[in-house]
Design brief:
The structure is a homodimer of 350-residue chains. Chain A has 350 residues and is of the alpha/beta class. Chain A contains 13 helices and eleven strands. In chain A, strands 3-2-1-4-11-10-5-6-9-7-8 form an eleven-stranded mixed sheet, sandwiched between helices.
């Protein structure tokens, strides 16, 4: 089998291009893949001196989508941007997957316009992989899609199920709905309707999951709209970071504390390592016709490396084949498919 | 001046009635107030043996609203429930404030139906007081109101502003909108419209606040709908608790870690104390015509005590007078008042 090729947006992210390139160079030394670094050749090349033996190539792209650019406009206007070109490499078959730590909205837009969606998916979704006290769980969506309808949440649930089953190797993933209480009657209108559909679906639906239960792994897959999911994911990160800041503030006032935390630092290091996003590298965009991993804007070399490796694993394990199959399977089980479900939903809403 | 009287729902909460009564007895010994314990007299009385010198009285109420009861139905059906009777004591002038750690939806419903709303408020909101690296911030709403329109978010902003100004003593509170990005164009339709109104308002509006910035105190007042706010608040709590669990898991594997954390335990204790909800006792319900503090369902004596003391402080500092004044002030400043703003909003929406 040929080497898997991953296109990497070398210009995207707060620490681009240096940390992105470093991460790519580390990735190709750990797994048998090839990386195409997409971006301004004159900027990238100096970082590649002395690495000519490694399977890394530069693909020139003269434009850059900034973090602050409006995603859809940027993708339309900047046809020669690194992210657009990287996604096109997949479309053309020159690469099998993409990693970008740049403007995530632009990555989503480029992926949707260029690669299209899988059958049965109205809106692709970002699946955040989060650490829990028992391992990892998936939150879907974490930033792609705001203003979701119940149908979208049901699709997210199916995609999360397939992802957890085939990639995280959980045979019967527990699927939960992020909500403000455990009872079925809780929540806003969208969530209540999604609940009633999920209850009838063949998924292993465990009901509502409250914010406090997320880390306790009440479900393997936690379904929510992109607004709530994004706020929740970033809040969780912020709380972990805030705790480190608070611990540092308190240590200043305590000699015993300094000694104690010196001795106990490996314990805390292990804990925070388990909570560190860079261990996972990025959030897969599920539902597009291709492999796309969206990295954290703040990604440094380690996160980039892990994100690229995740993209390669996705390709190798044929996630999209499983996703398409899972969506189809679920369509049959629901009886009549998505179209019928959409119509049913329209009846309920009207 | 007469002693401030606080009605306490003795039957509400996971640890009712014992912890509620203990908290009430502690409160009357710390501040000069009187407490009316509302609930089943035969259940409450045994806990009051030997406390006849304390300013605590029992008000008999034979029904109990359960945590799982549908709020509005329960309040309509159970006219002699402890929470309904407690709120009525305020309406009758026999008490000036209420504390309940019971079914929060039922507390909200009882307060709205019995006490009514302040002028200029369409929906009362729960203001969660959260610890940050710099002190405290207010998140409003944290569980009262889902399916909010932009107008409601603007009202929450005004109430949060008044609360932060007059109770937390912040002269010019920074008001932020919880969102998935910093740029004005980010977020769902409701949030985007709320942004444009807040930008024109005389509040000290600092723009969008992301989940990761909440603990870093980017704003004193963080505005969001009750769905997002509730998920975020509970997730934050869960992450802090989850961290404790993870630290315990890691300590098991490390002798040095055990010793270290023994020496450093005061540091961690201080940190987690700063993050402990029971230090604040509860979330004030802002916008109803009376003082109502909603305690955490899991409240133990200490949280109950602090919640009751908060209710007394609210009455003493005449928060609702300031709220009414603040809402009025803001109404004038907007020019034409809420009615006009509502109409404007309808134009935008349609």
């Amino acid at each position: 089998m040929d080497r898997i090729v991953i296109a990497v947006d070398a210009m995207g992210g707060d620490h681009a291009p240096e940390e992105i390139i470093k991460g790519a160079l580390a990735a190709v030394q750990e797994v048998e893949i090839k990386v195409l670094l997409v971006g301004k050749e004159e900027v990238i090349s100096p970082f590649l001196r002395g690495t000519s033996s490694l399977p890394v190539e530069v693909v020139n792209a003269l434009q850059v989508v900034k973090m602050s650019d409006p995603p859809t406009d940027a993708i339309r206007a900047k046809k020669d941007s690194s992210i657009k070109v990287a996604v096109e490499l997949v479309k053309q078959g020159r690469a099998q997957g993409v990693f970008s730590a740049g403007n995530s909205g632009a990555t989503l837009a480029a992926a949707m316009f260029t690669l299209g969606r899988l059958k049965g998916v109205d809106r692709p979704a970002l699946a955040g992989i989060i650490p829990t006290v028992k391992g990892h769980a998936v939150i879907i969506d974490v930033g792609g899609m705001v203003d979701c309808r119940p149908l979208h949440l049901v699709q997210f649930a199916v995609m999360g199920h397939v992802f957890a089953k085939y990639i995280l190797n959980i045979p019967h993933p527990k699927v939960g709905l992020l909500n403000i209480g455990e009872e079925p009657a809780k929540g806003n209108e969208t969530v209540k309707k999604a609940y009633s559909f999920l209850q009838k679906s063949p998924l292993n639906f465990v009901g509502n999951v409250e914010g406090k239960d997320v880390l306790y792994h009440k479900a393997d897959v936690i379904v929510c709209d992109g607004f709530v999911g994004n706020v929740a994911l970033k809040l969780g990160e912020g709380v972990v970071e805030g705790l480190v800041t608070l611990i540092k503030q308190e240590i200043k006032n305590s000699i015993l504390g300094k000694l104690g935390l010196f001795l106990g630092k490996n314990v805390l290091k292990n804990v925070f390592q388990r909570l560190d996003y860079s261990e996972y590298g990025g959030a897969p965009l599920l539902g597009v016709n291709g492999t796309v991993i969206v990295g954290h804007g703040r990604s440094q070399a380690k996160a980039v490396k892990n994100g690229i490796k995740m993209a390669a694993r996705f390709v190798k394990q044929e996630v999209n084949v499983h996703l398409a199959k899972g969506l189809k399977e679920h369509e049959d089980l629901i009886g009549g498919g998505w179209r019928k479900l959409t119509e049913k939903l329209k009846e309920v809403v009207s």
